[in-house]
Amino acid sequence: MFRRERSIPLRGSAAALGNNLCVLHLPVCNLTHFGVVHGPSAQLLSVAPEGVPLAQRQLHAKEGPGLSSPLITQVHWCALPFRVLLVLTSHRGIQMYESDGSVMVYWHALDSRDASPDSTQAVFARGIASCGHFICVGMWSGRVLVFDIPLKGPNIVLSEELAAHPASVTDIASEPAQEPDCMADVVTADDSGLLCVWWSGPEFKLLTRIPGFGVPCNSVQLWKGIVAAGYGNGQVRLYEASTGALHVQINAHARAVCALDLAPGVGKLLSAAEDTFVHIWKLSKSRESGCTEVEHCHGECVPDTQLCGARFCDPSGSSFAVTGYDLTEILRFSSE
Amino acid sequence: MSVRTLPLLFLNLGGEMLYILDQRLRAQNIPGDKARRDEWTEVDRKRVLHDIVLTMFNKSFIEELLKPQELYSKKALRTIYDRLAHASIMRLNQASMDKLYDLMTMALKYQVLLCPRPKDVLLVTYNHLDAIKGLIHDNPPLLHLVDETFRQLIEVYGCLSAGEFQLIRQTLLTFFQDLHIRVSIFLKDKVQNSNGRFVLPVTGPVPWGTEVPGLIRMFNSKGEEVRRVKFPHGGNYVIAPKEGSFEVYGDRVLKLGTNMYSVNRPMETHTSGTSKNLASQTQQSIAPNPLAKEELNFLARLMGGMEITKPSGSEPGFRLNLFTTDEEEEQAALTRPEELSHEVVNIQATQDQQRNQELARIMGEFEVKDQPRWSASKGDDLLAMMDEL
Predict the structure, then answer these.
(1) How far is B4 from chain A (nearest CA, A)?
(2) Banded pLDDT at B362 (limits 50, 70, 90)
């Protein structure tokens, strides 16, 4: 069903982080951009259809006070209606670039005063998503920073700080297409497993809280009013965003889920975990009952590899790519 | 990333070091009455282990270690182990020290990678501590010292969340990233592939708190289960039988972190041809500042608590060789790949005029002293006669 395609070599191995692969598909020029975090650096690659790498660039976390080179926690492309920005989060702050990583347009330093003098917690930013003309970024403290992005230029403004999470933010997702009856725009997740569903606006409004009972939620997606969440105990759970009701519980993996991705047009969900497996699920909403249904489509094992990132490479969900800890290549699979 | 990682890294690596030294010293053991003056005896072995354990678990050192702090660089950590290995009458050449450190780090990398759940890194640590207690069981004051550390660990780590343990494990994995040295024991047991990567089994018990994969449960808006479907998950997992104990005494259940070196097991490592990713490794080693100033400060503070009992003037320092022969040790030193060189930094106390007296004194203790003139005697002849382990 799926076959291995040509791998894309990386200069540095992928770090053992969650959500450690981001993809930007550019149909106009038939190129795909990939981004992977190595550690103190992240690598961006431009790849042609057959997997031939054409160009690459390395970005580094901006230095600051501290013991050693700051580590990057995540890199992610934010596709806003009018522009695409590349966001990079680290232990020092938040860096935003033009989509090819050539120019840094904004730098937000983490306020070290946020950390108490004898802080027992590491300070970092993690969790990136765009919603309308906003970009949301999560923090070690549980706060979510909301940045207002102008049509062009570097005049980015911190518009709001959301305080709803008691633990470090892990991931943020936004609704790909606005549903008529649906108010849920953004979902944020944290290390305690708590999910917060928000309505975005000039001021963000908290709609629902979905507790996680201490098991970290590492990755989250939002689709047609359904929250899909991947947890540290290998489960993938689907909730009704507006009410927080549990719709589906999948004992999907034997180790922590590290990444989820969505092909919204076809309702496909991709889950990858540290157990070396990738699974593809078909989501659907039953019209009569209003229940959400899930069907398993495909499973793939990447032997001896603790996966750390996974993404669909095209909107139809017919190809995907994965990264693994210590692996110096991006593995690609295709069903066409 | 996590500021709670250093104690676990230090104690586990220290545990592995003791396993290896214990095994190596036992292998060269000569009954006391038959030993020549320059040969290792049971008494010597015990003394070396006791001296190292005493230094490792020194009260103020552990106190300093347990403070929340960022992880040190590989170079800085290696400096601590060099010092620790020389805390007694034993001396190691650079090549043997390199090999020792390679074995230590690859063993811990394997244990961290295969931990079923992040919190199990604590069980690995407790396994090491249990075994250390076994090595010094005939020394009650020392046992007490280790138990004290045990209690402090439970206090610090007992209340950490699953999320914090996840971060600790990620921090440890970042430390071990790109290390692919092949270890004979691992290759023989088929837990490591010939390319240096560890085997991740897809069978066996799932972690405690995880369900066996393969089930989809669907619910209606009232919360009632309406359908359940099985799917092929690809592995062959079973439910976890029981949880390991996090108390000072108890069945850990997990075997990772226990002593895998029995007297007759091989100890070779293969450094040639393992580093496929030269680029990332050389980037680390060509960093302009081997030990940044701030790291030096932290290290000095930490080492200040490490009281080294120096051998008295009349006692020789006995050399231990981690290889089978001296020639092999020399050869290993010459052929070690550039990117794997663990350079030990010689810290000059006079470099920074502004350092205070106390700091200068502590830093003076870092210098690896010249070997005593008679140091080569104990090991040489004996090693030449030993079979390959």
Answers:
(1) 8
(2) very low
